[in-house]
Amino acid sequence: MNKLADSLARNRYECGGIPLTARALNHVTHVGAVADISGRRLQQAVSELLYQATLVLYDAAKLVQAERTGMLALELARKAADAKAEARAIESLSRVALYRGDTARAIMYARRGLAIPELPAGRIASLAMRLGRSLARVPEHGDAARETLERALQVDGLSRFAQAATAGDVAIGLSRLGRYEEAGALLRRAADEIGEYSPLFRAQYIGRQVQTAIGAAAPGLAADRMTLLTRAVPFVSSARVNQRVQEIMRGTAQWRNVPDVSSGAGLVSRNRSVRECRSSGRLRRRCRSGCC
């Protein structure tokens, strides 16, 4: 069971969620067919597998299935009396809720997770980041959002991967608050540092750099980051990355007469089309365990 969860996580980091959707749903179906999952170790292992399936479905924009799977992961974590697994499942539900546009629910889940005692540093940082990003969606909560995002950055004891991911995700919240310069610096750091761990996250953060440049009305920076994005997009298959690209196309339409921006947007769009149509080749070979 743990190997299945590790495989989903590893391949999602490399490929994105779309190629893994069928496998994740198959795992969920098999779990659902078991009448009673008893024994604390088995409950913990199945909760972890369902958590990883939730993240796959989230990245593939299968949000109804992602929420249901996250609730199952939470139920098993509670049956196992595993506070860390409970916080992990709650964090996944917060991110799904925010992606669905249910800000109040995203805030509620993040606060509930942070109320669990004795969590590891990485989970505290991720839950604080989730709360900050959710609060940033509510104009009257801008100050609280900024303070919470800064608190996430100040958590000590994170792995290099967690440091980079926290910086990148906090930056997304700061960009939402209009703090474009600070967000851009954090996103650049995150994209540079996380590439060795996750092509998916790198593509996401580069795409967010472009969007931050759009928000800051900086066409030159947007064009520069789009050049990087054209190199990152072909290696992942993610509904969230697809969404970034679509938003970038709309956001840069105002600069269609700026040659560098226009050519960059065209390359990003073409590379996305090539990736989506390709059913074999380098992308397939990059995915381990036959995930694609």
CATH topology of the largest domain: Serine Threonine Protein Phosphatase 5, Tetratricopeptide repeat
Which structural class matches the secondary elements? Answer: mainly alpha
C-alpha Rg (nearest Å): 19 Å
Question: DSSP helix count?
Answer: 15
Overall number of structural domains: 2
How far is the first residue's CA from the last residue's CA? 20 Å
Could you name the CATH class of the largest domain?
Mainly Alpha
Q: Which regions have little confidence, pLDDT < 50, spanning 5+ residues?
A: 273-292
Number of strands: 0
Average residue-wise pLDDT: 90
Oligomeric status: single chain
CATH architecture of the largest domain: Alpha Horseshoe
CATH superfamily assignment of the largest domain? Tetratricopeptide repeat domain
Question: What portion of the residues fall into strands of 2 or more residues?
Answer: under 5%
Largest β-sheet summary: none
Concise account of the structure shown:
The chain has 15 helices and no strands.
Polypeptide structure, described:
The chain has two domains: 2-207, Serine Threonine Protein Phosphatase 5, Tetratricopeptide repeat, CATH 1.25.40; 208-292. The chain has 15 helices and no strands. By secondary structure, it is mainly α. Helix 3 runs antiparallel to helix 4 (63-79), helix 3 (40-59) runs parallel beside helix 5 and helix 12 packs parallel to helix 14. Mean pLDDT is 90; it is low at 273-292.
